[in-house]
């Protein structure tokens, strides 16, 4: 958890520590990327409003780690344009600080399993508008020319909403292998994250 407020960090540390199976590390924005690297974090919650600290720069630093953790943006209130910006920058979701603890636990487990966090329903239309390029009338057609047969299978299961562990079971391969395929697919198809990847695959009729 990356937050500039010590009280928030401690509260979240105590809460998440109560969830079975979780090991928690909290950090001030300064040095947060290095700490995430040292701890080999699977999931990172990144506060959105931290005066004097660029959350997009922190997000980019986290996404550049190898292996990269799943990052969800966390904020006290919805901010116009922030959801789209976070998803385009590679975040796996967007969470509000007023969520119920059970939803937080569910979200963290989904992220750790390679899933994504649904944006609050009230934001759905706004997010769609943010992610749609201005002036585009027809959506681009997905080209699978450079996609291998195995990558296509992974893409089809992604389009059906399966998480990495479920895809691994379906294809009888390792979870790490699934993560590698997803990373390659994002690169080949030019999409920022698995949210957009699954959406594009669905629009291409792969679901």
Automatic annotation (TrEMBL):
Annotated HTH luxR-type domain residues: 140-205
Q: At what positions is 4-aspartylphosphate found?
A: 47
Going by the UniProt record, its keywords in alphabetical order are: DNA-binding, Phosphoprotein, Transcription, Transcription regulation
* UniProt entry tagged with the keyword DNA-binding: yes
Q: Which domain of life is it from?
A: Bacteria
SUPFAM superfamilies per the UniProt record, alphabetical? C-terminal effector domain of the bipartite response regulators, CheY-like
Q: Which PROSITE patterns match?
A: HTH_LUXR_2, RESPONSE_REGULATORY
Q: Which SMART domains match?
A: HTH_LUXR, REC
**What InterPro entries does UniProt report for this protein, alphabetically?**
CheY-like_superfamily, NreC/VraR/RcsB-like_REC, Sig_transdc_resp-reg_C-effctor, Sig_transdc_resp-reg_receiver, Tscrpt_reg_LuxR_C, WalR-like
Q: Which residues form the Response regulatory domain?
A: 1-112
Q: Which PANTHER family match?
A: TRANSCRIPTIONAL REGULATORY PROTEIN NARL-RELATED, TWO-COMPONENT RESPONSE REGULATOR
Listed name of the protein: Response regulator transcription factor
């Amino acid at each position: 958890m990356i937050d500039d407020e010590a009280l928030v960090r401690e509260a979240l540390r105590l809460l998440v520590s109560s969830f079975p199976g979780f090991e928690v590390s909290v950090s001030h924005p300064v040095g947060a990327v290095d700490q995430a690297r040292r701890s080999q974090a699977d999931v990172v919650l990144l506060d959105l409003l931290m005066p004097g600290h660029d959350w997009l720069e922190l997000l980019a630093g986290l996404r550049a780690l190898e292996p990269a953790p799943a990052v969800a943006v966390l904020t006290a209130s919805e901010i116009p344009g922030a959801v789209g910006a976070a998803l385009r920058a590679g975040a796996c979701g967007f969470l509000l600080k007023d969520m119920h603890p059970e939803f937080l636990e569910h979200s963290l487990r989904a992220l750790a399993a390679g899933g994504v966090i649904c944006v609050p329903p009230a934001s759905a239309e706004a997010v769609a508008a943010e992610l749609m390029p201005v002036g585009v009338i027809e959506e681009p057609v997905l080209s699978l020319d450079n996609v291998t047969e195995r990558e296509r299978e992974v893409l089809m299961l992604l389009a059906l909403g399966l998480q990495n562990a479920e895809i691994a079971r379906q294809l009888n391969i390792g979870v790490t292998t699934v993560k590698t395929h997803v990373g390659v697919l994002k690169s080949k198809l030019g999409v920022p994250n698995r949210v957009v990847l699954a959406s594009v695959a669905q629009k291409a009729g792969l679901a």
